[in-house]
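FAQ

Q: What does a record look like?
A: Structure on top, sequence underneath. For example:
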């Protein structure tokens, strides 16, 4: 036989998954990260506690109780494997059972391991009837492994009615299997059991109804096959001894748990009384002392170990507790001042809203309002003051209104002078020019700090004098130092296009106020844009920043005659929550820039610029469908279309319209 044939026969025909896993076990390894010094650092896969040698770990756990060992075993897989799967670690559990001060925990039955026994006695779980509340005190009925929540009267009665079977007065000759069925006993303090058998305070025995029916069926089958009662009982003598042994052991555990509960109640009462006396002697409150991190840790540790707190225990942590209580006092004092200060800010916000609603003149922004002398002095005083709420009202009422009116008047004079200077005028000249230059429709301003940002957002770019006074740059309300950094310049584009509109209307710039022009409901068309882009006055002054030289023409019929006009729709879609989000998802929006062949003429008619055809408003949709295919988008889609196809940075009402179905 050749070597090649020999190797061929020795090679397995198929690699098993175990061999493949063995080969690739250490292939994928996490690489060590390099530190800033360039040396690789070891990636730790386990915590330091789980790296302790078994001798050290067992020495530590020899001083704690079974509950704490169980908690350690559930920290990670390594500790779980160490404490549960190795027989030579059972001495840790046995030693922990003897660490209870009031009484050692009884030994487990042979069918329990030490770990499973600890889990059986101390584990929590949901109520076996309602399933809602977590039962933290272990099993209510150990033999049947049942848990009931604090609402035991309702849950136990409900369980007994649905799943239980009372076995107290059942005839043992007719039902011999009752002697080896797993039962549990409770005092008859609940309605169903009390109403059925016995009086309150007596022990009543019950079992699971499903188990009772199962054994009853087995007994009937045996009886039908000719098995006598004595023979049937001899067949189940082992089960009787087993059940009796289990029930006796469950009673030992129940008595141990009852003793533990009594000891715990005594320890809690005694330690609470001792804590209260310590607090009164030191001039503290009971809650203040118990709320400190150090003393709370001592209190909980002693409670879990069922030990009483001594004077020596407290003296060892007294200095730390004193420091923590002083820190708590300082924190509460600071929080009280902050609460008073926040109430003052809330009151001042209400005062600012009143000033805005009642004033017929421009008012400052909220950040500027807080910098006015009477307001800033009040805020500075109450930032460190410990005055009460009554004193806040007294100080606010004392001469605040008169001082505020005076300072607002001074502020308005200063702002008027600054903005007139931007227009190249002095205050003396403005008084001789008829209509106040700052109230004219051509008086438009930009904030140079946030102009570029606002061009890409729905925020207003072109501001009149009143809007400029209340303007706040982004972040100004949080940082008052940014208020003084506002830099306004003349809005040349808005002023220029507004002057063009005034000339088209044959009006005089010196006599035309912004409010008067708004009442006319004028509509213009942007001749620079492709498509039928129609604008009102405010939209025109914002739209002009898209072009270097914007050309306009009048739409004589006015705003009310504009087809498909939905002024304010953009704000609804962008800013209104529920209503806007619902509309945004609907494909009902079309682009006005994609209509180059259609213009609007007098009377609301449509005219084809190429063929000169006249169509009525009523038949407008049929004409549009014939001339071209109409593209319909959802709101996000029309925004994306405007940016990519027409270079529109921020969508406005004039850029789209809602298609009616």
């Amino acid at each position: 036989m050749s070597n090649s044939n020999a190797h061929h026969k020795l090679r397995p025909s198929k690699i098993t998954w175990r061999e493949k896993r063995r080969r690739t076990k250490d292939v994928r390894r996490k690489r060590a990260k390099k530190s800033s010094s360039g040396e690789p650092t070891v990636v730790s896969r386990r915590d330091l506690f789980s790296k302790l040698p078994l001798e050290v770990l067992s020495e530590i756990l020899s001083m704690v109780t079974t509950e704490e060992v169980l908690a350690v075993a559930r920290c990670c897989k390594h500790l779980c494997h160490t404490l549960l799967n190795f027989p030579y670690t059972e001495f840790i559990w046995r030693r922990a059972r003897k660490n209870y001060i009031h009484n050692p925990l009884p030994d487990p039955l042979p069918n329990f391991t030490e770990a499973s026994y600890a889990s059986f006695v101390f584990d929590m779980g949901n109520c076996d009837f309602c399933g809602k509340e977590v039962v933290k005190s272990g099993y209510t009925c150990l033999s049947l492994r049942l848990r009931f929540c604090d609402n035991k009267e309702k849950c136990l009665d409900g369980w007994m009615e649905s799943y239980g079977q009372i076995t107290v007065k059942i005839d043992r000759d007719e039902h011999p299997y009752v002697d080896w069925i797993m039962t549990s006993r409770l005092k008859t303090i609940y309605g169903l059991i009390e109403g059925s058998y016995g009086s309150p305070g007596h022990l009543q025995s019950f079992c699971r109804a499903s188990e009772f029916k199962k054994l009853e069926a087995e007994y009937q089958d045996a009886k039908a096959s000719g098995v006598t009662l004595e023979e049937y009982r001899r067949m189940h003598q082992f089960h009787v001894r087993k059940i009796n042994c289990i029930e006796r052991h469950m009673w030992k555990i129940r008595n141990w748990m009852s003793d533990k509960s009594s000891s715990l109640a005594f320890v809690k009462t005694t330690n609470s009384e001792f804590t209260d006396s310590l607090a009164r002697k030191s001039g503290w409150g009971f809650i203040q002392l118990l709320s400190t991190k150090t003393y709370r840790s001592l209190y909980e540790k002693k409670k879990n170990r069922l030990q009483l707190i001594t004077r020596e225990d407290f003296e060892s942590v007294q200095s730390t507790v004193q420091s923590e209580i002083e820190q708590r006092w300082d924190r509460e004092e600071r929080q009280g001042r902050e609460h008073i200060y926040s109430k003052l800010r809330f009151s001042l916000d209400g005062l600012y809203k009143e000033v805005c609603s009642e004033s017929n003149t421009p008012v400052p922004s909220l950040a500027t309002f807080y910098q006015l002398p009477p307001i800033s002095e009040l805020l500075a005083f109450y930032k460190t003051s410990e005055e009460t709420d009554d004193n806040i009202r007294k100080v606010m009422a004392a001469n605040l209104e008169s001082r505020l009116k005076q300072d607002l008047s001074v502020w308005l004079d200063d702002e008027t002078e600054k903005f007139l200077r931007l227009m190249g005028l002095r205050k003396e000249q403005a008084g001789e020019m008829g209509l106040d230059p700052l109230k004219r429709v051509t008086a438009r301003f930009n904030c140079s700090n946030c102009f570029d940002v606002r061009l890409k957002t729905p925020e207003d770019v072109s501001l009149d004098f009143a809007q400029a006074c209340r303007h706040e740059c982004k972040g100004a309300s949080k940082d008052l130092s940014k208020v003084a950094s506002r830099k306004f310049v003349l809005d040349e584009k808005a002023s220029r296009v507004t002057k063009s509109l005034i000339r088209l209307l044959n009006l005089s710039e010196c006599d035309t106020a912004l409010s008067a022009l708004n009442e006319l409901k004028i509509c213009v068309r942007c001749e620079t844009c492709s498509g039928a882009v129609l604008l009102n006055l405010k939209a025109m002054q914002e739209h002009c920043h898209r072009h270097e030289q914007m050309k306009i023409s009048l739409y004589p019929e006015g705003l009310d005659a504009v087809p498909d006009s939905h002024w304010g729709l953009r704000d609804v879609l962008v800013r209104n929550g529920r209503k806007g989000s619902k509309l945004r998802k609907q494909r009902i929006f079309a682009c006005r820039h994609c209509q180059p062949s259609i213009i609007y003429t007098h009377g609301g008619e449509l005219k084809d610029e190429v063929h000169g055809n006249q169509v009525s408003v009523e038949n407008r949709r049929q004409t549009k469908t014939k001339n071209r295919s109409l593209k319909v988008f959802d709101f996000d889609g029309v925004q994306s279309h405007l940016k990519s196809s027409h270079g529109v940075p921020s969508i406005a009402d004039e850029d789209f319209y809602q298609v009616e179905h």
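Q: Is there anything notable about this one?
A: The longest strand covers residues 203-208.
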